[in-house]
């Protein structure tokens, strides 16, 4: 199943898409990676979804990636005597540690870390910013605020803190239990929510011990401020525009999206653009023109992947949403302006032999109009380097390790194939030519370029380029 686009599609599974038959339809429509949202999935459901995805994978013979998205800390106010209260801009309103029902002067905040961290002048955004408070005084047990905008608040509404760095881990007790369960299954990526600082990744990395890739969701201004450090410790990034648009001015989000996307590309780390990409397709069979432009912008920007949330999880048209996203991406990548935009955003390679080999492979493939760039990889690093170059030439990534192929399914342009390890250099070339022919990338007489590490099976030692012809039988490299 060869995709006719290079950007990848993540589809979130949920009530509208949890059956195995629907998962297969989503994959056939264009989904490359499936997201399981641990905010809504218990461990039994998570295991069932993994089993169904792997059944589809075996049936179709293509590696499929799975991402488990941890909930992260959910900060909420307590309850009110009458469920909700009215407030007036300019009035005083207090959040405190007293576990009793609130009124229009105060409410319980069951998060001592907030009470201890908020300082005068910090903003507290309630209910996705519908109510804005500014702290005037704080003593560790209560925060006295002034109402800036908004006229009401009700039970258990969420709290966002754009100006405050909390001195607690981004990993909650629920997240730890979910992570332990996830690591027992055939899951490839774990997404970490509400990352504030590089240290938030340390605990998860220590627990995971390399068994999954770590994807940091950038949705807080504190994370944007330390983006380079977070990228260095992450395996992938997500532009989580929903919460980012609550904690930062909406008009700032498009620029931040470009900043994150370009920084991740420079570092050679996969980057996903997410949230409300085709939101209207939750209830409508076609998207708005603005949504089409939004998806197209992410593709033009060179994002590795674009994501559907409620559209595929709970919408009325999950398969149609995936198919629509795939058609938009295909059309953008065929646009005559697309190669020039992608080329202009390329960054200089790192000063390593492996990066130089990847750059040379792209230049040779484009100059000689070769049919494919074929990379052998065990760890996935060679595939990431090839994708970082954003070549016009298709990339085939071969790996003897199914987990590597699954993990790379989120990466721009990589057509991943699981194959037996090559016995020697000649077998490697024959195998590469065979697969390029079999997968529909080349025909007899075409040429391909192969990159690998010699000696074989040496991790991270990409040091070889080889141009090979597809033989007249379509199978033998000459």
From TrEMBL:
Keyword flag Magnesium: yes
Catalytic activity as recorded in UniProt: pyruvate + ATP = phosphoenolpyruvate + ADP + H(+)
Entry's Gene Ontology molecular function annotations: ATP binding; kinase activity; magnesium ion binding; potassium ion binding; pyruvate kinase activity
Domain Pyruvate kinase barrel as annotated: residue spans: 5-322
Alphabetic keyword roster: ATP-binding, Glycolysis, Kinase, Magnesium, Metal-binding, Nucleotide-binding, Pyruvate, Transferase
PANTHER family xref list: PYRUVATE KINASE
Domain Pyruvate kinase C-terminal intervals: 355-467
Pathway(s) this gene product operates in, as recorded in its UniProt entry: Carbohydrate degradation; glycolysis; pyruvate from D-glyceraldehyde 3-phosphate: step 5/5
Name of protein: Pyruvate kinase
Record bears the keyword Nucleus: no
Cofactor: K(+)
Protein family membership: Belongs to the pyruvate kinase family.
E.C. code: 2.7.1.40
């Amino acid at each position: 199943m060869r995709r006719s686009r290079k950007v990848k599609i993540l589809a979130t599974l949920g009530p509208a898409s949890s059956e195995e038959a629907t998962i297969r339809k989503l994959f056939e429509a264009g989904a490359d990676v499936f997201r399981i949202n641990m905010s809504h999935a218990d461990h039994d459901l998570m295991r069932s979804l993994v089993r169904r995805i792997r059944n589809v994978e075996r049936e179709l013979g293509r590696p499929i990636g799975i991402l488990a998205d941890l909930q992260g800390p959910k900060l909420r106010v307590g309850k009110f005597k009458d469920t909700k209260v009215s407030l007036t801009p300019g009035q005083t309103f207090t959040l405190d540690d007293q576990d009793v029902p609130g009124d229009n002067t105060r409410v319980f905040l069951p998060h001592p870390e907030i009470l201890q961290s908020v300082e005068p002048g910090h903003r507290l955004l309630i209910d996705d910013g519908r109510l804005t408070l500014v702290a005037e005084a704080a003593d560790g047990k209560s925060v006295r605020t002034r109402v800036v905008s908004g006229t009401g608040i009700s039970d258990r509404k969420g709290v966002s803190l754009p100006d405050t760095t909390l001195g607690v881990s981004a990993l909650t007790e629920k997240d730890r239990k979910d992570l332990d369960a996830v690591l027992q299954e055939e899951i490839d990526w774990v997404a970490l929510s509400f990352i504030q600082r590089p240290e938030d990744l340390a605990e998860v990395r220590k627990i995971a011990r390399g068994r999954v890739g770590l994807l940091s969701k950038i949705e807080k201004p504190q994370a944007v401020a330390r983006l380079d450090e977070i990228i260095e410790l992450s395996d992938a990034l997500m532009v989580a525009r929903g919460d980012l648009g609550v904690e930062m001015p909406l008009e700032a989000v498009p620029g931040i999206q470009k900043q994150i996307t370009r920084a991740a590309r420079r570092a050679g780390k996969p980057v996903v653009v997410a949230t409300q990409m085709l939101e209207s397709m939750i209830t409508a069979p076609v998207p708005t023109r603005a949504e089409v432009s939004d998806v197209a912008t992410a593709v033009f920007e060179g994002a590795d992947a674009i994501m559907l949330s409620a559209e595929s999880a709970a919408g009325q048209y999950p398969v149609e949403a995936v198919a629509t996203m795939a058609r938009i991406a295909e059309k953008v990548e065929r646009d005559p302006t697309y190669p020039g935009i992608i080329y202009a955003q390329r960054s200089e390679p790192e000063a390593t032999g492996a990066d130089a080999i990847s750059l040379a492979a792209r230049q040779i493939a484009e100059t000689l109009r070769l049919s494919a760039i074929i990379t052998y990889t065990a760890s996935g690093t060679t595939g990431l380097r090839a994708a970082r170059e954003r070549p016009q030439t298709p990339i085939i990534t071969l790996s003897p390790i199914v987990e590597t192929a699954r993990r790379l399914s989120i990466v721009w342009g990589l057509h991943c194939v699981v194959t037996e390890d090559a016995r020697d250099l000649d077998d490697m070339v024959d195998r590469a030519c065979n697969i390029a022919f079999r997968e529909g990338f080349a025909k007899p007489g075409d040429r391909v370029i192969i990159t690998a590490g010699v000696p074989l099976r040496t991790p991270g030692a990409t040091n070889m380029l080889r141009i090979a012809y597809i033989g007249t039988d379509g199978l033998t490299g000459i």
